[in-house]
Amino acid sequence: MITKLLRNTSIQTKLRIILMIICLAVICIFAAPVIFTDYYNYRNTISHALDTLTQIVGKNSRAALLFGDEPAAQDILASLKTEQNVAYACILDRDDTLFAQYVKAGWEPHAGPVPEMGSGVRFKKNYLTAFHPIVLNDETIGSIYIKYELSEFASRLRHYGALTLFLILVSCGVAFVLSNRLQRIITLPILRLTDIAGAVSQDKNYSLRAAKDSDDEIGILIDGFNEMLGQIQDREHQLKMHRDRLEDLVEQRTQELRAANEELRATRDQLDKIIADSIDCIIVTDSAGVINRANKAFSTMLGFPEEESIGKLISNFIPYRIGEYESTAGERFQVDDTLRKAAHAKITVFLDQKRSVQNWETHLVHKNGMVIPVDINMVVLQDEQQLIGSVAIIRDITERRKAELQIMRQSAVLEAINTVFQEMITCETDEDVARTCLALSEKLTKSRFGWIGELNETGTLDTIALSDPGWDACRIPESDKGRLITDLHLQGLWGSVLKNGASLKTDNPSKHPDSTGVPEGHPPLETFMGVPLFYEDKPFGLIALANKSGGYTEADVRDIETLALPYMEALMRKRTTITLDTERKQLLSIFDSMNAAIYVIDTDSYQLLFVNRYMRETLGIDPEQGTCYEVMMGFAAPCDFCTKKLLAEDPAKTYRWEYYSPALDKHFIVHDRMIKWSDGRSAKFSMSLDITDRKQNEQKIRRFAADLERSNQELNDFAYIASHDLKEPLRGIHNYASFLIEDYGEKLDAEGNRMLTTLTTLSERLETLIEGLLEYSRMGRLDLSFRETDLNALVADVVETLTIRLTELGIDIRIPHPLPTIQCDATRIQEVFRNLITNAMKYNDKNEKWIEIGYEDRPSLQVPVLYVRDNGIGIPQKHQEAIFKIFKRLHAREKFGGGTGAGLPIVKKIIERHLGRIWVESEPDTGTTFYFTLQNAQKTTASEELD
Predict the structure, then answer these.
(1) Which tens digit of pLDDT belongs to each residue from 908-919?
(2) 873 and 813 in one domain?
(3) Which CATH number characterizes residue 663's domain?
(4) Is the full-model pTM beyond 0.85?
């Protein structure tokens, strides 16, 4: 530092300054130990004195402290007034509560508890403190604290500083006077020599000589200087002769060079145009690697104007800062010291060894801090083996690198998908599959740790995989390594992923609006990425990853989203496999306990794969003895009636057939079906049920059915004949009674006429009853004609026939939506609707009457439920079963238009002939709804038919 300051000063000044510096250094060397020794001794003295004073006062205060005598303690502390530097003192009891204190005038009491709780003396910035416990009989009964100001110590230091400064000033003055006089012995000859050198340099007069005053080193210097001037004078004469010859030669060479320069300029202009228009970056450097030319493509690629590139080393554009860089190709890479030195050394070796560089792939730093992947080709420029510079052609390979990175990422993802499906086959549990997927996700994204969770039935989240680094870093008190966490409420960043059903990434999790922080003991989140998992288009769970260096990219999100689909497929397949295996074992256990012959055979080899306990124990079948036809039938070849070929034609069909075993004298019904065995091969599943008793019962039932059919026919015939034969005498009675009234009515008294009128009425009523009985019996004999029937047209016909009566009664017919088209006997169903609508018309006493006709879909019944609803008088609960009995009436015969009571029984019989049923729902004075179904009726609405 001193050398730089004195470099351009005169020799006289240099000598003066050197002598003064030496003087100052000597004084400081002698003064420093004195000051330091005094400082150290004084520090130890006051420290020891304060410590002794503190202990003495503490001992004197023991009695006052023991007996709680605060005045005595206050007097003891007041004695410290004699110590001018004691600023504050206090005594604390055994609970560290202030017992007594002393405050020097001008000082304020100490506020708050005494901070120095360690025993001993301590130096602070402007004061010294002492703290000691007060001990009595080895028991601490209190403590004493004293603050000692150091103003005296500061005054002492100022005194020594002033003394030292005075000595320095006096010494420097003496040194300056002496150096000013003595330096002339050395400086005067040197100054004269300097004047001679200046004159020679200015006037070019080499005949001048310097005077010599002594034989010391300066005298030797003057002799050498004079000799040099003589040699220069001789050479100047020779140079003048050569200069004249060279001027002629230079003129000739100049003409030749001018012509060569013109040719070179034309070539350079052409080369400049090629370089400027090139789409590749071209730079030209000198022999040291400094850029002296760069084309526009280079400036455009790196974002530096050409003037900023010129004069810089090419190595300045190669990543030099140690750390992580992001490439415009979307890659991230770490530059360490080794990588940096290797890149810079490559250029150095290239220039030193004059070797060309071909297809060197590296990175250059853009002005914005991004790095650009490039391909560099460099050639050296030489002149007679002398390196004069280099030319580098630089090509931006961002798109190529992007394609390569994309292929690498896709390959990594495909490899990960392959691994997931391979692990699905070899893993024993679904948790193993989840852990494999998590490990692959961490590897793909270079994440520090992560986890996979799925939603449970309560809507909270259970973790199914948690990486080991995650457990190692986690110090949550309730966490336990190896145990998965359950019932996590949807909150924070990962909760947002599930709620929104979309991926989320952030490089600053703590500042994200959805962040809720991390639990105590959880490692801090530097970066976070969450990808939702879907199953059957519903949220299933998520893959959560954390702490990737440099943050996550959109490519990371796409990779994990791509991996999520095969992962879910593999997970569900593994769970299905586990479930199927469990169910298979349970099913075989059930088959083993059933009282039926159940077995499974290999359709290729006819080997028995499974035989249940019934076959082993009851039928004595041993599956180890051979094929099914050998063990079960005793045949040497497959059975002629084997269903293997039938099942092969339609593997999804169950083939049902009956078999009689002469050996067992039993009938069996066999159900055969093709299945896949646990190892994947095709097999035939057979279940044989013993139906011997059923066969015997069927014969009995056929006999009973024949007898019942004959009996029913006889009853129907009897009802028909009886009703037909009763009509003839009944008509005779009615006619004769009518004749008597007409011919002899005037001769008979009133009672006689009444009796004849009653007889006529009774005969009419009896005929109506017989007609109803005949119609009821006919319902059991008539064959139904089923066809596709549009109920909309059918109901419209019925309503049209009743229009006059409906208008008279003021009844509104409502059909809320189109009725279905079904298979039925249209004539009989028309009778059903006519009867139900007529009843709804009759039994209604409201001012505003309405009847609603419609249907309801009830999935449990699998057929449409038709209904006729009204707002009439209603039916009490206790009578709702009786109305379907023939000739059963709930009202007087003359009330509500009369009737026989046969209508609803006939309706019920028609519906039962359609394998349906009818029921009623009603409340008195509210209305009635008759519901009925027609079994196996296939429904299509009118709107569907139009479609």
Answers:
(1) 888 888 888 899
(2) yes
(3) 3.30.450.20
(4) no
Helix (H) or strand (E) holding 513: none
Give the pLDDT of residue 463.
83
User: Are residues 665 and 707 located together in one domain of the fold?
Assistant: no
Residue 215 counted as domain residue: no
Position 765 pLDDT exceeds 50: yes
- 795 inside domain: yes
Q: How far apart are CA 626 and CA 521, in angstroms?
A: 66
- Is 60 exceeded by the pLDDT of residue 283? yes
Q: What is the residue range of 723's domain?
A: 691-782
Better pLDDT: 190 or 894: 190
Q: Give the phi and the psi of residue 610 in degrees, each rounded to 5.
A: -155, 135
How far is the CA of 856 from the CAs of 410, 683, 863, 864, 870, in angstroms?
A: 55, 45, 9, 6, 16
Count of C-beta atoms within a 10 Å radius of residue 35: 15
Would you give the distance in Å from CA 728 to the centre of its chain? 92
Question: How far from 742 is each of 729, 733, 739, 761, CA to CA, in Å?
Answer: 20, 14, 5, 15
Contacts 24+ apart (CB under 8 A), 312-319: 313/288, 313/289, 314/283, 314/285, 314/289, 314/347, 314/392, 315/289, 315/343, 315/344, 315/347, 317/364, 317/365, 318/343, 318/344, 318/347, 318/362, 318/363, 318/364, 318/365, 319/343, 319/363, 319/365, 319/371
Q: What is the pLDDT of residues 12-33, one digit of tens each?
A: 777 777 777 887 788 788 777 8
106 by Cβ neighbours in 10 Å (0-12 / 13-18 / 19+) ranks as exposed
Specify the DSSP element, H or E, that contains 218: helix 217-277
At residue 270's C-alpha, the angle toward residues 268 and 272, to 5°, is 65
Query: Looking at the structure, do residues 566 and 436 belong to the same domain, yes or no?
Result: yes
Residues 738 and 603 in one domain: no
Mean confidence (pLDDT) of the chain: 76
Closest to 809 (Cα-Cα) out of 836, 854, 848: 848
Higher-pLDDT residue of 460 and 225 is 460
Tell me: do 599 and 705 sit in the same domain.
Answer: no
Asked whether residue 459 carries a pLDDT value surpassing 90, the answer given is no
Token code pair at residue 361: 């792939």
Q: Which CATH number belongs to the domain containing residue 769 in this structure?
A: 1.10.287
Residue 145, CA distances (Å) to 76, 110, 149, 153, 572 in order: 13, 11, 13, 21, 75
- For 451, the token pair is 């986890």
Q: Which segment of 176-185, 470-479, 516-525 scores lowest on mean pLDDT?
A: 470-479
Assign 568 a pLDDT band (cuts: 50, 70, 90). Answer: confident
Cα gap 869→806, rounded to integer Å: 15
User: Does 629 map to a domain?
Assistant: yes
Q: Let me know whether 434 and 552 are in one domain.
A: yes
Cβ within 8 Å of residue 861, ≥6 positions away: 933
Of 690, 713, 743, which marks where a domain is finished? 690
Residue 457 shares a structural domain with residue 554: yes
How many domains is the chain built from?
6
The pLDDT assigned to 515 comes to: 82
CB 865 within 8 A of CB 897: no
DSSP string, 812-876: EEE--SPPEEEEE-HHHHHHHHHHHHHHHHHS---SSEEEEEEEEE-TTTSSEEEEEEE-SS---
Span 505-514, pLDDT tens digits: 888 888 888 8
Same domain, 428 and 566: yes
Question: Which of 522, 500, 559 has the alpha carbon at shortest distance from 513?
Answer: 500
Which residue, 320, 319, 298, is CA-closest to 309?
Answer: 298
CATH of the domain at 496: 3.30.450.40
Residue with tokens 């009956």: 658
Judged by average pLDDT, the poorest of 48-62, 602-616, 618-632, 856-870 is: 618-632
Residue 203 lies in a domain: no
Average pLDDT (647-659) is 79
Report the half-sphere exposure of 30 (CA within 13 A, side-chain side). Answer: 9
* pLDDT tens profile 424-440: 555 667 777 788 888 88
